[in-house]
Amino acid sequence: MRQNTSSVAFLLVFATFFNVFIPILGIHRVEAAESENSDFQEIERKELRSENGKVFQTDEYEYRLEESAAKIHYGTPGNYKPVNNNIIVSPSGKYKFRNAANDFTLRAGAFLNDGIYFKGHGKFCEFKLESVDGEVVNNSTGTATGNKLTYPNIFPNADLEITVLSTGILTEIVVKSENALKQNIIYELSNCNNSQFDEPTMTNGNKGAKVNQSTKEENGKKKLVLNPDYSKLGKFRGEVRIDPSLTRASVKDIFVSTATSNGNRRALFIGGYIDYTAPGDPFLANSRALIDFGKLELPAGSVIQSGKLQLWHYGTNGNHGNIYVTRVTSGWTNSTRWSTQPAVDGVNYGSTKFPTYNSNSLPVKREIGLSNSLLYKLNSSNNGIQIRNFNESKPGVVVCSGDGFDAFCPTSRAPKVVVNYIVNQPPYTPNPVSPETQTTYSGNCDESVSPPTGNCRTTTNVTTTVNGVGDGDNPPGDLKHTVFNYRGGNNFTTDGITGKPTVNYNGNFKDGITYWKGRSVDKLGLWGNWSAEYLFT
Questions:
Q1: Is the separation of the CB atoms in 375 and 368 below 8 Å?
Q2: In the Cβ-directed half-sphere of 197, how many Cα atoms lie within 13 Å?
Q3: Residue 178: phi, psi to the nearest 5?
Q4: Is the full-model pTM beyond 0.70?
Q5: Could you tell me which of 232, 85, 255, 237 has the C-alpha nearest to residue 170?
Q6: Using CB atoms within 10 A of its CB, is residue 444 exposed (0-12), middle (13-18) or buried (19+)?
Q7: Domain residue spans in the chain?
Q8: Are 162 and 147 in contact (CB under 8 A)?
Q9: For residue 451, is the peptide bond before it cis, meaning its omega torsion is within 30 degrees of 0?
């Protein structure tokens, strides 16, 4: 999952966020919207995108998956369809490039000065890059490949890239050399009064920072001005992507209740609550929350370090009990009710007792630590989780659903599972380089005569050498030791060779009898492949 690049690339990113759009917070974009318990202290690198999640690279070797219950859809809520992010090239018209396969519409001109049009659910905005450091940018010709639209050389050593994601568009200035860094980057905006802009960011390698921004009016036109402080980035480290996505989300989470069919509302009830929606007088009902995140789909070689469930809490009844998370083992739908609720395995994978808290305006983020065993199960085929009271006779708590019915519980406050993991690749396969012949050691063996003369087919100590030894992972997945195998004998190991490209071991060989080979193991116990096997002759 590392990115190797021979050229330095620098990114300035901004995106338009319309009031009706809420970003899915997960694989590559850090939470910035909430000050309460916000974890916006990292600018993180895009590595992977799935239907309802994102992966961040939190430092050089560790990653975090944030999987939301909110799924991206096109069509009626709950009717999920595959999303085609490819850009369509039109043979005519002002807007040569189009994409309308998502919950939004993108149109862009053949030339940079034609601008970009973005529309979603009645809100729209047109914008274009106008100038950099007081110089008008080049009116370059756009080219589309798949879901990426590129306007090359908008100024020397810099491109403008527009990438269509399943949740929105990514707008990036990619600066390819340090001497091309610019200030006073100005976008011209049109008809954008009903929209607001995501906070611009810049990244370089694994390091990122916010970008200073302001707006101004000039000749009756609104301008967005970006002035990055490059000193915040330090030394260049290579290209990184930031994902300022836009989304309209639907959620597969419900609660099942002994009372009514209350499953799809802004709230998830857990434990006892007073039901006021059923006919007749209010009464105490029992409830359990069901949440499906889909398969986590961690990359091959992932080693889970920790995980947690994030919930937005806004209600607690007095004398409430502890809640816990268990795994659902059979299928369910948004129409599932108490009488048809799915089976669970009953194992406690994480529990807590929320503080007493009630608010009509400000939910608070709470977290429940999850066991790694549950996370590995959710990484494969699964049916989600259930949250319930240990003692279901006690009052419960109320948390936000991901249905996103109002500003109180928007889709950004959907339940979310967060997984921290590393990607551990196996060590390299060694290459045997010596010894191949006994004559290296005897020097006077002649097997062309019968019987052979000299020191032949005898036991001798020789030094076995393999090169190409190593591990592409850095700690904690680095090399532990290399094993040398002598067929018919013992397995000899050599320790303390971490990071060395060549490994030697002095062992006992028999000419024409001993076969040998080598392989390596890392500190997490993952073995690489055996090398080719050699016969010592």
A1: no
A2: 25
A3: -65, -35
A4: no
A5: 85
A6: exposed
A7: 10-233, 252-423, 431-535
A8: no
A9: yes
DSSP assignment letter at 214: E
Which residue's structure tokens are 């990607």? Answer: 423
Q: For residues 210-232, b (16+ Cβ closer than 10 Å) or e, as one string?
A: ebebeeeeeeeebbbbbebebee
The pLDDT profile of the chain, 537 residues, written as one tens digit per residue, is 223 322 333 344 443 332 222 222 222 222 222 223 322 233 333 334 455 555 656 665 566 666 656 554 444 444 445 557 788 887 666 778 888 666 567 889 899 999 888 776 456 778 888 998 888 999 999 999 888 899 999 988 889 988 876 556 778 888 887 777 888 888 888 876 555 555 677 776 546 667 778 888 888 788 888 888 877 776 655 543 322 222 222 235 677 776 655 555 667 888 887 766 555 666 677 889 998 887 776 777 788 888 889 898 988 877 888 999 999 999 888 788 888 899 999 999 999 999 888 776 678 889 999 999 999 998 877 788 999 999 988 888 988 887 655 556 766 678 888 888 777 888 889 888 876 554 555 556 666 777 766 666 555 667 778 888 888 776 667 788 888 887 766 677 776 666 678 887 777 666 666 778 888 888 888 889 998 887 776
Backbone angles phi, psi at 418, to 5 degrees: -120, 125
Residue 122 in contact with residue 248, Cβ under 8 Å?
no
- Cα–Cα distance between 172 and 160 in angstroms, integer? 6
Q: Which two tokens stand for residue 191?
A: 């008809």
Q: What is the CA radius of gyration of the chain?
A: 30
- Write the single-letter amino acid at 526: L
- Asked if residues 512 and 491 have their Cβ atoms less than 8 Å apart, the reply is no
Neighbours of 208 (CB within 10 A): 21
Strand-pair partners of 272: 395
Is there a contact between 266 and 406 (Cβ–Cβ < 8 Å)?
Answer: yes
Cβ distance 390 to 323 under 8 Å?
yes
Give the separation between CA 467 and CA 430, rounded to whole angstroms.
6
Helix (H) or strand (E) holding 431: strand 431-434
Q: How far apart are CA 293 and CA 136, in angstroms?
A: 47
Q: Are 14 and 200 a contacting pair, CB within 8 Å?
A: yes
- Looking at domain 431-535, its CATH class is mainly beta
